[in-house]
């Protein structure tokens, strides 16, 4: 309890040094404590010799004596670790490092010369990183903290995991965590192979006392890059020949990302109706049918024949379902 209060007093001191005058409710909101606790902490700072003063009136608040600066800015281990997530407060909070990150940032700002401190403040005001994609709620990751602990401590993580083909139980040697498009992945070794596990699909997790040795020379960033490259190269199993309206061609980058942009850029000359031919990489036949239907009447499948037939069957079934009732 004493260490917790000491850390809070230091955070209060750094807040006043960085922000200047602040009211008790403002301090309470920043430190996530009650206003009564702020009053007690300010009294404790004053009793310890810190020149903190209370200005009365509508524009009042607490402030430090002009020119006073503390150099008590040493980072703890957790605070130093949290700095690697300085641009991602949401993920930092998911990992249990939200408070550490806030305190570390305050300490860093307090140690900066006045000019650089102002520059740092302006950057934080004007640039923000939001990792998750649009129109998608963040996945619940109740076992992320356990996975992070296992990775950091090099301890075996026993999981109950949901795969597409069913549920499994495995002992994982966690080698790292990756945040990709707002989704957390655990890169881990299991049964002599390194694989990626979506953290939201971990149904139960237990950090065991057993430790493991990391593979010599393992590079998390390089491994993830190579894995992503292999996934992209194996993702597309064929190509679809499409005839698109001008609007359909413009929809390709929005609907299919980089692959769609490349296909649109390689479109042939327009025919007499203004439609263009494009070649679009596709996945399996069912996925390709779904993808083509997303373009609606802006696209016609020219080939391969099995895809054209599958789309025709899907459209016929849709027409049957939506036929007006008598």
Stretches where pLDDT is under 50 for at least 5 consecutive residues are 80-88
Number of helices: 12
Q: How does the overall form come out from the CA principal axes?
A: elongated
Counted beta strands? 10
- The largest sheet has its strands arranged as 6-5-4-3-7
Summarize the structure.
46% of the residues lie in helices and 23% in strands. The chain has twelve helices and ten strands. The strands form three sheets. A five-stranded antiparallel sheet has the order 6-5-4-3-7. A three-stranded antiparallel sheet has the order 9-8-10. A two-stranded antiparallel sheet has the order 1-2.
Structure description:
The chain is an alpha+beta fold and 326 residues long. 46% of the residues lie in helices and 23% in strands. It has helices spanning 2-19, 24-31, 35-47, 77-82, 89-94, 98-111, 114-126, 144-153, 220-235, 246-265, 285-293, 305-321; strands at residues 52-55, 61-64, 155-163, 166-180, 183-190, 193-198, 202-211, 238-244, 276-282, 299-303. Strands 6-5-4-3-7 form a five-stranded antiparallel beta sheet. The longest helix is centred in the last third of the chain and has 20 residues, at 246-265. The protein is elongated, with a radius of gyration of 28 Å. Residues 80-88 have low confidence and may be disordered.
